[in-house]
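retry 2 of 3: previous attempt timed out while embedding flavin-adenine dinucleotide. Reduced batch size to 1 and resubmitted. Inputs unchanged:
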Amino acid sequence: MTSVGIIGSGFGALAVALELKRAGHTDLRLWERSDDLGGVWRDNTYPGAGCDVPSPLYSFSFEPNPHWTRRYALQEEIHTYIRSVADKHGITPLVRFGSEVVAATWDEHSSTWTVSFADPSTSSGTREETVDILVSAVGQLSRPRLPAIEGVDSFAGTSFHSAEWDHSFDPAGKTIAVVGSGASAVQFIPHLARDAAEVIVFQRSPNYLMPKPDKPYKAFHKALFHKVPASQRLERGVIWTFMEQFARGLDDESRVGRVNKSVAMWHLRKQVKDPDLRAKLTPDYPIGCKRILFSNEFYPALAQDNVDVVTYAITKVTRKGVVDSAGTEHEVDAIVYATGFDSQDFLQSIDITGTHGQKLATQWADGAHAYLGMYVPNFPNLFVTYGPNTNLGGGSIIYMLEAQARHMRQALDRLVAGDYETIEVTQEAEEAYDRDVVAKLEHSAWAHCDNWYRHRSGRITSNWPGATLPFAKATKVLEPSAFRWA
Ligand SMILES: Cc1cc2nc3c(=O)[nH]c(=O)nc-3n(C[C@H](O)[C@H](O)[C@H](O)COP(=O)(O)OP(=O)(O)OC[C@H]3O[C@@H](n4cnc5c(N)ncnc54)[C@H](O)[C@@H]3O)c2cc1C
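retry 2 succeeded.
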């Protein structure tokens, strides 16, 4: 029987495990470094954490949830959803918690992966397991990143990253510096601003911000979703259609892009009356180049008297606070880093070695790329979920993960049916695919400014170009000639 080891226990790992289990593959194990499943929805517990894609779409297509309390569910509810899906389908018992994968090495003789885990109880500090197929589901946003600012460690007050929220910290009456104003900051700043004496937001660049069409579902909606599941499928379909159009707005010079920009600018004018603050919050780059954000509460929070937006760069963190490039030292009680994640160095926290001793880190030194974002030459039997160029500027990642899982299931089915031991994408197929992706990305909004979708080499490594349907089509039927089967 072909054994499959999946690293992670977020939506990606679940999508693959559920798909393979349904297809009758039973030798499955999931390795999770933490003590609970859920991925980013276990870790990001900051106040106001929630999805920015409506929940009927940001959920598994085969597991609609009539119990969502609102259109854009909050973290706790999404985490509960993940746990309940894993329980319902018998995935939870397959998860080995406290298993941090540190290395994986391809053995050409046995055609298996030897996977190493951190284990302080052994003399070597590691233990090993062997599997036929290795699936990475470590996500793109699972490693919080602190900024490389002088003195970050010298601050004497409370400080933490938004993905590692310190719930023992009480913001009431405190002066708090928030470093960053991106997707997470937009969600938690309104909560901090309610209780804190003062919030100083250090903004590197402003974001385009759209109104969030969020609302609680009434008892009527929930009853309807429950009794007539087609009604929730209809809502999902409407949202998906809308999001596909939204994604089209991320193409260069698209009319949808111009509409998106008008809406964002109208939202700013409506919610921020102070011309100085409005100027600070007006982006100077094409819409979509950085992630478009959604909130009805962020601008009003910034307009509060106890909130200040500083646009000078931070030059130093001191014992007492933060020094900006104008030379002002802002003394604060706490610093919250909303500085995002190590998203570009795909899989580099794991030492992965493929055929002929090839290191994945070396192969991807100038930025990661993979056939369909999933398969890498020189790395047989390695499947990657949410890999290079599968992130979205608009749309549900879960939709993408399901498409990837279906493709991986086909790969595994063919492997088993053909009595093969290995599947490896050919160099030619990967290169041809990559040329196409790179050409499309050159015309995308992301090509026009600095953003977290880019590797330091300049290559856009995170995002899929365009809407999600073309990805679903590209992955619908496995093309056997793209792979070497042995
Ligand atoms: C705050 C936040 C909000 C978001 N909102 C949205 C949204 O609204 N819509 C959307 O489409 N996407 C959103 N995303 C993107 C989100 O990352 C994906 O939607 C999705 O949850 C990714 O799932 P995943 O399983 O691929 O990765 P993750 O959820 O990151 O899970 C990876 C798992 O792998 C584990 N892991 C990592 N390394 C190892 C290792 N070496 N050994 C063992 N285990 C390991 C981690 O502990 C984690 O449990 C958001 C992300 C964040 C951070």
